[in-house]
Amino acid sequence: MALETCFMPNSAAAALQSLRAMRPRVLQTLVTDSSGYGALLDKMEEHQWEGGAGSHAEQIRKIEEILPLDLLVQCFLRLTSFKDMARASTVSKLWRDGIRQSLAYRDKLSFWGWRADDDAVSNLVEEATNLKELDISASGWGCRITDYGLRRISQSKCCGNLISISLWGLTAISDSGVTELVSRAHALKHLNVGGTFITDVCLVAMATLSKQLEVLNLWGCRHVTEQGLLYIVQGCCKLRTINIWGLTISSSCLMGLVKANPRIQLKRSRAEA
After folding, report:
1. Is 11 exposed, middle or buried (0-12, 13-18, 19+ CB in 10 A)?
2. Are residues 58 and 136 in the same domain?
3. What are phi and psi of 88, to 5 degrees?
4. From 36, 78, 92, 269, which residue has the greatest number of CB atoms within 10 Å?
5. Highest taxon of the source (predicted)?
6. What is the pLDDT confidence band of residue 31, given thresholds at 50, 70 and 90?
7. Are residues 117 and 6 in the same domain?
């Protein structure tokens, strides 16, 4: 699936509208006299940003004449909206290449607030070869991420470098997909699987595979048992914080967790604390 179809952008006209809004918060921070592009904003005002004449194709061509690929990449690196990125990728081949190159430089990607699916997320992650932090938490739009998406992410070049992954609220994923993902995320330190339906099977796998894990969020994971918690705390010696809000934990289990790791911080609701 092409990048431009990931979030179904409306048209090149919509892309240009997004980029008009992008200019003041991005380009003005990049274009300085010392960078050799001191007159760039003036040229863009003349040709495009304030309603320059000509068709969209002509305006795009004029912009590309004064915007080299390396500067486009730097501009796109400042974009935080994947809707803007998807729209920009439809403008021209040069802009699509700029979006793809900017992804390769990113160390963080967050899909929070977007109704992304397996292919949309996987395609972007596969381009982000230097990614360190990935957030594909479910939002109010609903969840469309499944084990298939997690498996594709696990096979991406960046997976071994990921230090933080959030799968918050992804109710369509299972032990299988999460286990496959963490099995290849060798540098993983922070994992959020709160609000999912994972079980002890996943925790046992993490205890063996996730030796660098420091922070684990199990908020509302009601299929996790006390035995699973003991496995993960005993197996992950670097674990410092674990969120067990919403889990039914006996006092004897709590004592066992602290005994296994005296430095562990157990986050619970006030009523349980």
Report:
1. exposed
2. no
3. -60, -35
4. 92
5. Eukaryota
6. very low
7. no
The model's pTM is 0.77
Say if CB 99 and CB 5 are below 8 A apart.
no
Structure tokens at 209: 């595979």
Q: For residues 151 and 126, what is the distance between their CA atoms, to the nearest angstrom?
A: 12
Q: Which is nearest to 43 in space by CA: 64, 15, 18, 74?
A: 64
DSSP class of residue 117?
B
Mapping DSSP to helix (H, G, I), strand (E, B) and coil, where does residue 63 land? helix
- Quick one: how far is CA 129 from the chain centroid? 13
- Residue type for 27, please? L
Q: Is the distance from CB of 121 to CB of 3 less than 8 angstroms? A: no
The tokens describing 90, both together, are: 């439809």
Phi-psi region of 51 (alpha: psi -120 to 50; beta: other; left: phi over 0): left
> 150 near 183, Cβ under 8 Å?
no
DSSP annotation of 54 reads S
Residue numbers of the domain that contains 21: 1-105
163-216: per-residue pLDDT in tens? 999 999 999 999 999 999 999 999 999 999 999 999 999 999 999 999 999 999
Q: Of 193, 171, 169, 199, whose CA–CA distance to 181 is shortest?
A: 193
Per-residue burial over 234-266, b = 16 or more CB atoms within 10 Å of its CB, e = otherwise: ebbeebeebbbbbbebeeebbebbeebbeebeb
Q: How many domains does the chain have?
A: 2
Query: DSSP class of residue 49?
Result: I
Q: Which two tokens stand for residue 80?
A: 């935080």
Q: For residue 89, give both structure tokens.
A: 């990728």
- Length in residues, the chain: 273
- Range in 10-19, 91-100, 117-126, 158-167 the model is least confident about: 10-19
According to DSSP, the residues that pair with 139 across neighbouring strands are 142
